[in-house]
């Protein structure tokens, strides 16, 4: 949303008004808040105070290291729910706040961050800076806070009838020279958002446009701070795109509130953001194994499913979770929770047989929050008031996706109870996880929720939170607090509490793989620990080389699933069952086995990621190396936890260029080292890629030929010391998420504190044992 046409003119049809003066400052008696009265012109005489608008800017210190800024035009305007569920684990005590005043300014301190408001010369000037004075973070300067009407009223009298106008509130924070902006949800365009106009409005638009399934009103700056915009409403951002030196945030309404979160490191920013919106939920160890799907529109029954799983077993590719996509239900009946009796006459028995055969350990099914009118269940749900209504009392329906479909109204407690009852019926049949698909296309015009106090426009994005929360908590109630697993597509702020999320409908191209990688990086910078992608791409038929490159990428995401649209993703269907070492089946088997060996590291890192509100994988390089300016621009590689650097390959030839930050890095496959910082080129076959281990790492691996995902992560392991220094540590967790012990390198350079390790474990220095590996990387 642009309010100006370049620097000098107002945009056509707009009338913006700006806070031009700080007329008065009221200090809260508790010493943790300031309230600024800001007229839209400089007040130089009494008469200047008449017939003009003012803006109220409330600056508060909610907890140490964080400051909130709320701008309001008319205080009497309602602020209808829904609102984000903040401080789900409790609000921390504010212990380090103070207001100080000089002849020219007032400063509010909140731990490591302060806001200084200039009080002299009638200037509008608010600076956010590190309390120790080491760095200015951002600021609100001349013509940076205001409101706007569209269309422009002819005079103030016309604003007595606001039904004729849209009213917007906006702020513009400064962008410093060289500053970059990241996050704002799962965005598939350029990783650095400077120069982009972004709308935070959930949409089912695939992975190759400006639309996003997961719009998160949080962004991370390379200058050591983040901004959380506290509304699920539609938000328009001009990130250096209306004014090149500012980030403009605007919403339609009378108030806008955001929090500025100081790190100073990006990890600390995310830790504090997780206090506001919640830490990610923990996931069970089995969820990190390979998931295999039926794909979307393919034909399948019990015989087909068994043939897939038997084929995977015969090729030494263990499948942890089997997923039934949409057509486990009858066509035109989604989602009534009733198995297609023709294709699956005995769903409970089939699932029992699957698990008893050992071919798979867990089962997942697809759902969406819609109900097609062809299902007999539609009439029941409509008669009970379980579906969203129009303002005239009709059920909201359209023919988009499912014929005559209605939308479950999760603001109705009885609808929630009914929906959970349907889920429990699936759990009774042996279903262990739920893919919560859709939930983006939620209407806002001519609709009324059961809770009529709610804003339909805010509900558009917030619906994602309610939908995923209800399903996640139903899984928790059945299986245990840390055993609930979603595979969710839509999200908003706080939905990280209900993992995991996946990247949506990508094409089977290298460009789409890169788009997905950028999306995962951006979502991770919004506090999402767990993320997956449709290996091979969802749309289309991946050629074997893309499938194999995507397998390598996908098995080094936190979670890994084979899924397609109108074609299967079992490897032998991709390359006519090429049985060579570089065929799809052998390549998938090798990468699946590698992930199994890495599980002691992966699962321990998962616990650490959850505790600190960090992404496990994909983790942007800037989280680990924020002082390296190059790291803020790297969008073709990522960290898997603290210590593993991964650079997926997008070329059939295997050529790849990647960046290593400062330090010594060890090639996981060859134990050869490279010293950063610098760019490097390599060429790989399909069974390797640039996978480098950071120096000073204690990497615990499962034993040779370990193909299970869930096992004793302290028994028979290989403990690899990668150029470690005395004092290096790592905490090892068991497969149930329990802390087993801390491994530490002693003063003599040898491993100490190892009594909790069991079986025939061993230590290797400056690499891992490579005697039994056949993978080769050709380094350039």
From TrEMBL:
Which PANTHER family does the record cross-reference, listed alphabetically? GLYCOSIDASE FAMILY 31 (PTHR43053), MYOGENESIS-REGULATING GLYCOSIDASE (PTHR43053:SF4)
Q: Which GO BP terms sit in this record?
A: carbohydrate metabolic process
* Any GO MF annotation of the entry: alpha-D-xyloside xylohydrolase
- Which enzyme class? hydrolase
Concerning Gene3D superfamilies, the annotation shows: Glycosidases, glycosyl hydrolase (family 31), Golgi alpha-mannosidase II
Domain Glycoside hydrolase family 31 N-terminal: start-end pairs: 57-235
Q: Which reaction does it catalyse?
A: Hydrolysis of terminal, non-reducing alpha-D-xylose residues with release of alpha-D-xylose
Q: What is the lineage of its organism?
A: Eukaryota, Fungi, Dikarya, Ascomycota, Pezizomycotina
Keyword terms: Glycosidase, Hydrolase
Protein name as annotated: alpha-D-xyloside xylohydrolase
Q: Which family, according to the similarity comment? A: Belongs to the glycosyl hydrolase 31 family.
Q: Where is the signal peptide?
A: none
Q: Which E.C. number(s) belong to this protein?
A: 3.2.1.177
Domain Glycosyl hydrolase family 31 C-terminal: residue ranges: 618-699
Every copy of the Glycoside hydrolase family 31 TIM barrel domain together lies at: 283-604
């Amino acid at each position: 949303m642009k309010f100006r046409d370049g620097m000098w003119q107002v945009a056509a049809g707009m009338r913006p008004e700006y806070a031009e003066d700080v007329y008065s400052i009221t200090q809260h008696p508790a010493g943790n808040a300031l309230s600024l009265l800001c007229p839209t012109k400089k007040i130089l005489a009494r008469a200047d105070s008449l017939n003009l608008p003012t803006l109220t800017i409330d600056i508060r210190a909610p907890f140490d290291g964080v400051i909130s800024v709320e701008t309001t035009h008319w205080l009497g305007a309602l602020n209808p729910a829904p609102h984000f569920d903040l401080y789900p684990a409790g609000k921390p005590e504010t212990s380090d706040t103070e207001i100080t005043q000089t002849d020219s300014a007032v400063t509010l301190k909140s731990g490591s961050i302060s806001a200084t408001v200039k009080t002299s010369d009638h200037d509008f000037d608010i600076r956010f800076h590190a309390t120790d004075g080491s760095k200015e973070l951002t600021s609100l300067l001349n013509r940076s806070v205001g409101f706007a009407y569209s269309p422009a009223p002819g005079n103030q009298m016309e604003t007595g009838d606001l039904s004729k106008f849209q009213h917007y509130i906006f702020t513009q924070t400064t962008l410093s020279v060289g500053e970059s902006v990241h996050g704002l949800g799962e965005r598939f365009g350029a990783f650095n958002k400077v120069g982009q106009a972004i709308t935070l409005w959930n949409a089912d638009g695939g992975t190759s446009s400006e639309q996003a399934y997961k719009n998160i009103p949080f962004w991370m700056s390379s200058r050591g701070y983040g901004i959380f915009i506290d509304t699920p409403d539609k938000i328009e951002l001009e990130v250096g795109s209306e004014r090149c030196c500012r980030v403009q945030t605007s919403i339609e309404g009378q108030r806008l509130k955001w929090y500025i979160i100081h790190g100073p490191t990006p990890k600390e920013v995310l830790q504090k953001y997780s206090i506001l919106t919640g830490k990610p939920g923990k996931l069970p160890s089995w969820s990190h194994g390979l998931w295999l799907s039926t794909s979307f529109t393919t034909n399948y029954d019990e015989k087909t499913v068994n043939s897939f799983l038997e084929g995977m077993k015969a090729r030494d590719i263990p499948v942890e979770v089997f997923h039934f996509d949409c057509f486990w239900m009858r066509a035109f009946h989604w989602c009534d929770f009733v198995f297609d009796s023709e294709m699956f006459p005995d769903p409970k028995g089939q699932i029992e047989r699957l698990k008893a055969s050992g071919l798979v350990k867990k089962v997942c099914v697809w759902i969406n929050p819609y109900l097609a009118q062809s299902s007999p269940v539609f009439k029941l749900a409509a008669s009970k008031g379980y579906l969203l209504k129009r303002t005239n009392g009709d059920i909201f329906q359209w023919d988009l996706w499912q014929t005559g479909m209605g939308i479950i109204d999760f603001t109705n407690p009885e609808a929630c109870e009914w929906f959970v009852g349907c889920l429990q019926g699936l759990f009774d049949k042996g279903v262990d996880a739920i893919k919560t698909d859709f939930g983006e296309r939620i209407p806002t015009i001519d609709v009324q929720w059961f809770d009529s106090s709610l804003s339909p426009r805010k509900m558009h994005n917030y619906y994602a939170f309610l939908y995923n929360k209800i399903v996640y908590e139903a899984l928790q109630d059945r299986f245990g607090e840390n055993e609930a697993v979603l595979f969710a597509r839509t999200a908003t702020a706080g939905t990280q509490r209900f993992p995991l999320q996946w990247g949506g409908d990508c094409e089977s191209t290298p460009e789409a793989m890169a788009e997905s990688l950028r999306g995962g990086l951006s979502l991770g910078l919004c506090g999402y620990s767990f993320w997956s992608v449709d290996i091979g791409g969802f749309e289309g038929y991946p050629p074997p080389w893309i499938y194999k490159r995507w397998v390598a990428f996908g098995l080094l995401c936190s979670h890994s699933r084979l899924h397609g649209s109108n074609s299967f993703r079992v490897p032998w269907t991709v390359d006519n069952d090429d049985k060579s070492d570089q065929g799809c089946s052998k390549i998938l088997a090798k990468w699946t086995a590698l992930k199994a060996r890495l599980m002691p590291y992966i699962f321990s890192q998962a616990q650490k990621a959850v505790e600190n509100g960090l992404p496990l994988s994909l983790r942007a390089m800037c989280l680990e190396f924020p002082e390296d300016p190059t790291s803020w621009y790297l969008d073709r590689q990522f960290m898997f936890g603290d210590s593993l650097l991964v650079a997926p390959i997008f070329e059939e030839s295997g050529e790849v260029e990647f960046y290593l930050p400062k330090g010594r890095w060890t090639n996981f496959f060859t134990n050869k080292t490279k010293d950063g910082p610098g760019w490097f080129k390599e060429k790989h076959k399909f069974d390797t890629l640039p996978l480098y281990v950071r120096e000073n790492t204690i990497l615990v691996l499962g034993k040779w030929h370990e193909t299970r995902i869930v096992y004793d992560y302290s028994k028979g392991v290989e403990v690899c010391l990668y150029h470690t220094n005395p004092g290096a540590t790592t905490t090892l967790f068991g497969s149930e998420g329990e802390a087993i012990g801390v491994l530490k390198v002693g003063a003599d350079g040898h491993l100490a504190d190892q009594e909790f390790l069991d079986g025939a474990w061993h230590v290797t220095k400056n690499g891992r044992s490579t005697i039994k590996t056949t993978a080769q990387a050709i380094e350039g």
